[in-house]
Design a protein that fits this description.
The chain is of the alpha/beta class and about 400 residues long. It has 13 helices and twelve strands.
Length: about 400
């Protein structure tokens, strides 16, 4: 179960696991809360869009999140009742589409084993996906300094009560927690759910038919590129403060006299109206994954300037297309591209970022190192590791 299916980083992961499980002869299903409806076998969008908007409004007014969406939650539980799964794999349960209490109490009452993949820190904080510098989650939350951050609330701080309720619900589960990054696994072990079984399984992407080194000459022709080096940045909402697009523009300014073009993918329509420097090519969002893989392949360096990430999928996609990565050493970002295919510096240090980009260009890593990472981050490798956990949980249930 996830927020999305077939789109977004976690939605793609969920769909790839569903395809692999189905191809291996298992009966698999996906339930999700938001986004476009996917009309495929055993894929069900349970979230009601109108209720999601109402949930978000109530969160802003009351300070509670994950406490509303009763109709969507009932639709999900009915779907689970019909499907009768032996095991449930939960990814992202936030984003205003699920009432956590009845969902987790239902799993406990039915004694359905749970694999819960933490893509952020929501499960062990009062409300935050990324608490940044706040460490209240280690002792019980309350006095939240991030009330206006997602999930946003205007007036009330109920983070202590919400964390207490989450801990109660998770304590009821027969559960294995997984994290795509060692960084987040380590954070989880510092939290108030440190008694749970926590393991690290990197995210997997489609390295067989999509993300591998591809022909890109037509893209160079499209953008009028001759012998310029290419630096690429990709993220939905790239110019949002936490995504770091403005730092990429500052990097482009520092390197304006070099023979380098900066390509930015993921700008909003109004942002595309801005005037950019001559060495910057600004593009909107794209759902064309093949073309995105071609852009990754064309780039000499992929840059990421987010203020916090778990194991960013864009970095995995870039590495699997044979492209080095430079960025800030925050969260699990550096785990995506070990030296010498990646170089990472302190958050906000544009000089260090500039140095890392130019050094990666001047000393390209050998192709076999990228091939090693492509195997590590393959969907097949991820599926094998998760199947091992599914089997372990089911074997334990039968004893």
């Amino acid at each position: 179960m996830d927020v999305l299916c077939k789109s977004g980083s976690t939605g793609k992961i969920v769909y790839e696991l569903y395809k692999k499980a189905s191809a291996a002869g298992h009966e698999a299903a996906v339930s999700y809360g938001r986004g476009a409806e996917v009309k495929e076998h055993n894929i069900f969008k349970f979230g009601l869009d109108w209720e999601t908007k109402f949930h978000a409004l109530l969160t802003r007014i009351t300070g509670y999140t994950g406490c509303f969406s009763p109709f969507s939650t009932k639709r999900l539980i009915k779907f689970i009742d019909r499907f009768q799964p032996d095991i449930i794999h939960l990814h992202e349960p936030h984003a205003y589409f699920l009432n956590l209490r009845p969902f987790f109490e239902y799993l406990a009452a039915k004694k359905i084993p749970l694999v819960y993949t933490f893509h952020c820190e929501f499960a062990f904080t009062g409300k935050c996906g990324h608490p940044l510098q706040c460490e209240n989650w280690k002792t019980g939350c309350g006095n939240c300094p991030n009330l206006r951050d997602y999930p946003k609330t205007i007036f009330f701080d109920h983070t202590a009560a919400m964390l207490k309720e989450k801990l109660r619900l998770l304590e009821m589960q027969n559960m294995v927690i997984t994290s795509p990054s060692q960084w987040l696994a380590d954070r989880t072990k510092l939290s108030l759910i440190s008694n749970k079984d926590v393991r690290t399984i990197p995210n997997g992407i489609d390295t067989e038919t999509l993300f591998y080194p591809r022909d890109f000459q037509h893209l160079r022709e499209r953008h009028g590129l001759k012998d310029e080096k290419v630096v690429l940045a990709v993220a939905p909402g790239l110019m949002a403060e936490h995504k770091g697009g403005r730092d990429v523009l500052r990097l482009a300014e520092k390197l304006e006299n070099e023979n380098i073009k900066f390509i930015l993918i993921g700008l909003e329509p109004e942002e595309l109206k801005e005037k950019f420097a001559p060495n910057v090519i600004a593009l909107g969002r794209t759902e064309n994954q093949q073309e995105l893989a071609e852009y990754y392949s064309m780039a000499d360096v992929f840059v990421i300037c987010s203020d916090m990430e778990n194991l960013p999928t864009t970095c995995l996609e870039a590495v699997c297309c044979g492209t080095a990565v430079a960025g800030y050493d925050v969260g699990g970002t550096a785990e995506t591209a070990p030296y010498p295919i990646g170089r990472f510096g302190p958050y906000g240090d544009i000089d260090a970022l500039c140095k890392n980009v130019t050094e990666l260009m001047d000393a390209p890593a050998p192709p076999e190192l990228f091939e090693k990472q492509r195997e590590r981050f393959s969907v097949q490798n991820m599926f094998i590791e998760y199947m091992s956990i599914y089997t372990e949980l089911l074997d334990g249930k039968e004893k």
